[in-house]
Write a structure and sequence with these properties.
By secondary structure, the protein is of the alpha/beta class. It is 36% helix and 14% strand. It is globular and about 70 Å long. The structure holds pyridoxal-5'-phosphate. Pyridoxal-5'-phosphate binds next to helix 4 and helix 5.
């Protein structure tokens, strides 16, 4: 109620929850930019409110040797350019470049290195990225070392003259490990000015964290997770401020042929317009469920950066505007994990995060890297919070086999 005794809709309430938890203030104008930037960049004269889609693979040259005009779609496409400008505006970066997948974006970055040069990676990383690093850097005669970036001495030992990339995923998709982007970036730049810091920001998106603002050099995304969120596109992207790094990465996009299709670019550009709305829901529901889970007698631990109990809650607050729908937890009795997962009715057991559908599964094992196989990874989608809680409750209670009038029967 305001001072005149009238009820007012308080649209700041939700963002102030995150501020009260200690996170950075909500990014101003993010939603407005996501909706209107598109029109600003579009290269065609048109009164349509959505930017146009251009599927052309090859272009007519009006003058020979004009390097700025479109020639062949692998090297440039107006729909793709438009999306890249929109992504850069949301990241507050000078440039964004899109690729055929998140791993395609990572391949483009790795390929900036030469034979004998070294990549240092924080070991708490998603399975697919680890497989890419392990299987291909050796073939390209590069050096690779996994370390724990929360140990700066270990990181310092790994930084050799030939180290060119220092790579981390924060928060990590597996264990919700949070690394201090500012501290690590400054440390690397002081000790080895020629090395570049790469942050995989897939778990939060530019709505919740913008690593370039904390000293990182390159940000990498699997776009199909939160940024797109509609589970029907595979795409990756990078964001950078440095002109030279951008030039190389842009060249690799076309010369290595790791491009997304113009149609997919159009789809992603459209879904940017609901990114802040979707994230607000993922954030709210995942926090609610994490808080609820913490109180259940069958649960040993909940790993969610917005919880006070998270060991790096303060670091998450310093560098992000809140936390998304991805988190992890452990049951007290590891023998119950299989049954618990089997009993779930709404949560899918598929390999996907950041979409509209909720999912849960055991943390993936990675060869040579210790993972607690009893850890359960969760991605909260866009369903109703109470239905998700009810589903987890019945799976914890092991009630699912009987037909006790349960209304959550979807599969
Ligand atoms: C999915 C994922 C990737 C790989 O991206 P693709 O688009 O599947 O190639 C990289 N990093 C993180 C954190 C991911 O979740």
């Amino acid at each position: 109620m305001n001072s005149n005794g009238e009820y007012e809709f308080d649209d700041q309430n939700e963002s102030s929850l995150w501020e009260k938890l200690g996170f950075l203030k909500k990014s101003r104008s993010f939603a407005t930019k996501s909706i209107h930037m598109d029109r600003k960049f579009e290269e065609f004269e048109s009164s349509s409110t959505l930017s146009l889609i251009n599927l052309t693979s090859t272009y007519k040259l009006f003058e020979a040797h004009n390097p700025t005009s479109y020639q062949y779609s692998r090297f440039g496409n107006p729909t793709r350019n438009n999306l890249e400008k929109c992504l850069a505006s949301l990241e507050n970066s000078k440039y964004a470049v899109t690729y055929a997948s998140g791993l395609g974006a990572q391949t483009a970055i790795i390929s900036t290195l030469k034979k004998g040069e070294k990549i240092v990676v924080d070991f708490d990383m998603n399975f697919d990225s680890i497989r890419l690093f392990k299987n291909f850097t050796g073939n390209m005669a590069m050096e690779l070392e996994f370390v724990d970036f929360s140990d700066l001495d270990a990181l310092k030992n790994a930084l050799k003259e030939n180290t060119k990339l220092v790579w981390m995923e924060t928060p990590s998709s597996r264990t919700m490990k949070v690394l201090d982007i500012r501290k690590i970036s400054d440390f690397v730049h002081e000790n080895l000015p020629t090395a570049r810091v790469v942050v995989d920001n897939t778990i939060l998106s530019s709505y919740l964290q913008r690593p370039l603002e904390f000293g990182a050099d390159v940000v990498v995304y699997s776009i199909n997770k939160y940024v797109h969120g509609y589970s029907d596109v595979v795409m990756g992207s990078i964001a950078v401020n440095d002109d030279k790094v951008h030039e190389k990465l842009k060249y690799h996009q076309g010369a290595m042929g790791i491009i997304p299709s113009p149609f997919d670019c159009y789809m992603v550009n459209k879904s940017l317009k609901t990114l802040s709305l979707r994230m607000d829901h993922h954030m709210k529901v995942s926090y609610k469920i994490a808080k609820w889970l913490e109180k259940q007698p069958q649960i040993e631990v909940v790993l969610h950066p917005a919880l006070q109990s998270h060991p790096k809650h303060d670091v998450a607050c310093q560098q992000s505007h809140g936390h998304s729908g991805v988190f992890a937890f452990k049951l007290k009795n590891p023998e119950n994990v299989e049954n618990f997962l089997k009993n779930l009715k709404i949560f899918l057991k598929v390999e996907s995060i950041g979409g509209f559908e909720s999912f849960m599964r055991r943390a993936e094992k990675v060869e040579g890297i210790e993972v607690d196989g009893n850890l359960i990874n969760v991605s909260i989608g866009l369903e109703d919070a109470d239905d998700l809680i009810e589903d987890i409750q019945q799976a914890l209670d092991g009630r699912s086999e009987g037909s006790n009038g349960d209304k959550l029967e979807f599969y």
